[in-house]
Amino acid sequence: MNQLWPRHTKSGALRYLGLLWLALSCFTVAAQDLKVVLEEPVDGEVASGISNIRGWAIASEGISTIEIFIDGQFAFTVPYGGERKDVENANPDVANSLNSGFGQTWNYGLMAKGTHTLTARAISSTGNITEDSHQFTVVGLPESFYPKENSPSLQGASVRVEEQEEQLIIENLKLPDDELLTIVLAWNVASQGFQVQSVNDYDTVTPIAGRTDPVGCYYADITENNQLSLNIASNASWSCGTSDRDLVANGIPDHEVGEFPNPNNPSAISAQDVRKTFTLAPSLAGAPTYLGGPSGPSGYVLNGVKIDPGTAGSCFSANNCSLSNPRGDWHIEALGQSHFDFGDDENNAHVQPGGAYHYHGMPEGFLNKLGATGNDMVLIGWASDGFPIYARWGYDDPDSADSDIRVITSSYQLRDDPPADRPSTDLYELGTFTEDWEYQAGSGDLDECNGRFGVTPDFPAGIYHYYATDTYPYFQRCVSGSL
């Protein structure tokens, strides 16, 4: 038998130990440059939809396989050998580091929502193993979002940019079951697309204490109109600054309208220059302030159309009435009476001589656009004092969001004993004039200004808010807050 060294000599023993050290040293070097780096999914971040699993791995003896484990279970192997110049520059002494990338697309949407761990295991050509693991959270939309026949509605939704967080936020996205969602998206460099960061109920957006922001601060809508009476696009944009909520709009409705001009309303709808400011910190005043007409609108619907429920019509006596002279003692209502016709449409709206389309009562077309069904409260605008306006429906118990949703009623009732100088009810039915109505506290749900304090989906801690109602006063004629 040939021997490399004399087995029983001191020099032979030293030679054996030297060769053994050299072999172990070479093995250690090979083991030390075996490395795998998992780059996506990002550790501690969220993952959603179709994105990537990617990273790189190097070893002097070469990489044989990259295995992927999900939550500790082997899932699949991924292709290896993609060009990575950055890895070569950082590891110039490792052979084949240029072609060290691995990756493939992966549908994170197929994974259960929640926290997961993904492990990339690199196996070298000599069987050495190293791993890198990342923990991430899968988020996604509820199943009702996906079927084509039940696609979500973007009507009434708004999009805003959160510059500091570099995110897009879609608010008020409506699902077929009327659930409202807030979806947060962030740019994903690897996939060069937006990635869902979170999906929350819309009503989890928490207003700032004592203020109305951020609710409704990013509402913006442009709606094309191709109607017989209207071919001007509706444009409305709401934004919030440090202390004020600003509306810039053209006053054009964003829904179907009636025929204008018409025999009882000779004005055509035209664009207006609407620029209004509302406080973000509304506060109740000691006494109500009545608005309308020359005193200014009592509020604006989100589409930028003003709320002006009164009219310029009045009667001085039974045979002396005018639809354009408000100086009489008996002021004519646009709604709820049959003697006078102001040419209003199915949206309880018509057009002023200057072309301003405006609401006297429930904006039915706008509610239809929002998809309102009575299953929840619907924010439709802001009053001139900065408090929110809701339409028709509210909580049965104003202090409980767990109570049933029902139609909210005003507390105005027709007088039982009209004054003797009132024009005859044989000619003008009760309800024809503003003066036919009187506020009777407790007879309905609301106060003198058609408002109340209570919780809403947008303000779960409670806030004073107004309602558009199906009976007089239809919209608030006064505001309870400071102007």
Based on the structure, what is the oligomeric state of the protein chains?
A: single chain
Radius of gyration: 35 Å
Mean pLDDT: 87
N-C termini distance: 109 Å
What is the number of beta strands? 34
How would you classify the helix and strand content by structural class? mainly beta
Counting structural domains, the number is: 3
Total helix count?
3
Per DSSP, what share of the residues sits in E-state strands of 2 or more residues?
35-45%
Tell me the helix content.
under 10%
Order of strands in the sheet with most strands: 24-25-20-19-26-27-33-32
- Biggest sheet descriptor: 8 strands, mixed
Envelope shape: elongated
Q: Low-confidence segments, ≥5 residues, pLDDT <50?
A: 1-10, 19-30
Q: Can you describe what's shown?
A:
The chain has 483 residues and is mainly beta. The strands form 9 sheets. It has an 8-stranded mixed beta sheet with strand order 24-25-20-19-26-27-33-32, with no helix packed on it. A 5-stranded mixed beta sheet has the order 2-9-8-4-5, with no helix packed on it. The chain is elongated. A hairpin with a 4-residue loop joins strand 12 and strand 13 (193-201). It has 3 domains: 33-138, Immunoglobulin-like, CATH 2.60.40; 143-204, no CATH class; 220-481, no CATH class. The chain is built from 3 helices and 34 strands. Helix content is 7%, strand content 37%. It has helices at 10-32, 85-90, 364-370, and strands spanning 35-40, 46-47, 50-58, 63-70, 73-77, 80-82, 101-107, 114-124, 129-138, 158-162, 167-174, 180-188, 193-201, 220-223, 234-240, 244-249, 274-279, 284-290, 299-301, 306-307, 314-317, 320-322, 330-331, 349-351, 357-359, 379-383, 388-391, 393-395, 405-407, 412-414, 437-439, 451-454, 463-468, 478-481. The termini are far apart.
